[in-house]
Give the backbone structure.
Amino acid sequence: MKRTITILSLAFVATLSLFLVSTKTASAAGLTLVGGTVHLPNNVLIAGATVTVSCHHGSQVNSKTTQTGVGGGYLVGYPQSLCAIGDSVVVSAVKGNQSGQAAGTVHNVSQQQTFNVGLSGVTVTIPEFGPITGGVAALFSTGSFLFLKRRNSSK
C-alpha cells in the first residue's frame, strides 16, 4: 500500500514537472498557449468534442481546431506573432447537437490562457402546416388582400 502511494506521488510530481517545463519552454519559444476544458451544464467533462480556437490578431483571424482529450481538456499553441497580449480569443466547442462558446483576451503570454466552455443543447423546432391548415391560411390571406384592395379602390 505504501509503495503504491509512493509510486502515485512520483507519477504526479513527474507529470506536474513536465507541465511546468512545457509551459516555460513554450513561453521561452514565443508561444501563446490557449487551453481549458469543455463541460456540460452539470460540470461533466466532455471527451471528443471538436474545439475551434480563433485568435483575433489585428485584422487577422488565426484559427486552430482540435479535439478534447479523455478528461475534456484541450490545448493549442500560437506563435506570439499570430496571437499576443491584448488579442481577443474566441473558443467554440461542438459535440453532437450541443455547442458552446467562450471568449476573452490574452493577458500574459508566459502563462496558459484558460477558456472553459460550457455546452448546451440547442433544439430548434419548425412547425409544419398540414394541407388543410395551409389551404385555409392561403384562402384567408387571399380574401384579406382582395377585401383591402377593393376597399382602397372604392375611395
In short: Helices lie at 2-28, 131-153. The CA atoms of residues 3 and 126 lie 61 Å apart. Residues 4-28, 122-126 have pLDDT under 50 and may be disordered.
